[in-house]
Amino acid sequence: MHLNQSNHSKVSAEQPVHFGWNNVRFTVKSKKKQGDGVLLDGVSGSISGGQMLAIMGPSGAGKSTLLDVLAGRKPLQSGTLTVNGSDTTSVRDLSGYVEQEDALLGTLTVRETIQYSARLSDPSANQTTLDERVDATLGSLGLSHVANHRIGTPIQRGISGGQKRRVTIGNTLVTLPQILFLDEPTSGLDSATALEVIACIRQMAKDHGFAVLCTIHSPNWETFSQFDSVMLLARGKTIYNGSTLGAGAYFTALGHPTATHSNPADNMMSLVSTDFLHGDDIERGQDRIRSFAEAWKEHMDEVGNEKPRAPSTIAASSISARPLRRSKMTGLALLAAQTSTLTKRNYLNYSRNLLAYGIRLGMYIGMGVLVATVWVNMPQTDARINDRLSVHFFGVAFLGFMSVAGIPSFLEERAVLMREKRNNLYTAAPYVLANTAASLPFLAICTVFFAVIVYWSVGLHPGATPFFRFLAFVFLGVYAAECQSLLIAAIIPIFVAALAIAAFINGFWMVVQGEHQIASSLDNHTAAQTGYFVRTLPSFWKYWAHFIDYETFAFQLLVKNDFTGLVFKCSGSLADNTCLCSQPSTLVQTGQACALRGEEVVRSLGFDGISTTLYAFIL
């Protein structure tokens, strides 16, 4: 079975790509010692389509750095890259990169995961072409029998670790790369599963003619023998770069033969590993690495002029590499297509992911029931104004606080976003638009449940118009909190740290929101009597934190919406001159009633001058 390739990216097995790198050097600034730390020191090599190269070496050898430099994820500081004989500065448009960690959406099935990668890589392709490509990828990786199984989440069992690895690889293979980079694809897998994964990649590389460069730590013999060639690095230097089968003979010639029934890969690693050496043995180990590097350099000087070019290399030199998975769409059309695909995927994920909005819906319902039962059927009296303010305060503050429940889901999405963004599938703009479009319906449902439970049970401003305004303002506050949590998760990818920061920020907003600030027109005696407006927010907090707090705008909108048009009965009566309101009342002064207008409460809070349209726009 073969992957169906479009004309703009077709590279056949008869005309494979040839990728070479010469004298690549990479350094970093060293804090411990003067000068630069050399991570790669003049590394050279090449590979043709249909071949697999294993990049091996102990920790700190430069394996991942070399892979990142060749893949364009780190800058090419020194040296040259060539594709089919022509110099290039980057192969990102020709390649795919499979990272060490499996970044997958656990709620999607195996087929859906690979389908969305195919669609994002080529938005202009017709559905039949993409389906054929997905089916071929599933078949080649041995995933057809689990195609309709979900990946799996912390609360839902899914496919095995080896199958997840193959799905991650399939996400990249379905984009039709000419060069495939894999960073430790067998990490965390048992030997049987590791062999299964590498064997699948080898077969696909031969079938479809793409070159494979793979970092690998300590493969067993069966896995090691799947590679056509091996590059051994130590301290950024090349120790060996040649055929897998020839590695044993080369080190035997240097006086380090592989013991009978031993793995040549283990022998190579033991010769260059210095991690567990102590004292003088460390210096001797470093000297041995330097001698191996010199020996390889001398070996290459001897055979360099005599070694004939491989037939595949000669054939490849006459063709020019063409970029893969570059859709004919550009500009707004491409943005719209990517946004549409991501919106569908996000909506599917959210609708299945209990951690994303399912648990939060339960929390919103629970909070609605709590608020409704604590402040049930509030009488419309001056003495209960503080309670009405508390309802709005908790409605904004605690619903916003609950947005932290979405951080685990956001972090899972972030890992997928970063992987796909680094593989040039899309930019941040379509993701942000898609996330907004997909999340709004779920946030709206959560808000509606809360509003319906609370509004009529508590006895807020009667009427359809005030209710729908209440619903809209609560929704805007919840959406602002959602955006804040998304931003925190994007900046801080560590779950515990993101959760702690989000909790602190939401607590901070609750404090500086200023629900209890005192209006200058309210006398302290009356304030103490009624129990609300008991302190003034200090100017330091008011003039910066208070006015960038989304809860401030939502709270003021809710209060103005609820109080405007209401009349609150005060204690006592006009008849016996015992009427007492929390603040001066025009109704009392004119002898109309022992009551207080809601507008006067809004004015005393300083909310009468706010623009509903402007504040809603700010949220």
TrEMBL record:
One of its GO terms (cellular component) is membrane. It is a multi-pass membrane protein. InterPro entries: AAA+_ATPase, ABC2_TM, ABC_transporter-like_ATP-bd, ABC_transporter-like_CS, P-loop_NTPase, Plant_ABCG. It comes from the Eukaryota. The chain crosses the membrane at residues 354-377, 389-411, 432-458, 464-481, 488-512. It is found in: Membrane. The keyword Transmembrane helix applies. GO terms for molecular function: ABC-type transporter activity; ATP binding; ATP hydrolysis activity. Keywords: ATP-binding, Membrane, Nucleotide-binding, Transmembrane, Transmembrane helix, Transport. Its main location: membrane. Residues 24-260 form the ABC transporter domain. The keyword Flavoprotein does not apply. Belongs to the ABC transporter superfamily. ABCG family. Eye pigment precursor importer (TC 3.A.1.204) subfamily. This is Related to ATP-binding cassette protein (ABC) transporter. It comes from Pseudozyma flocculosa.
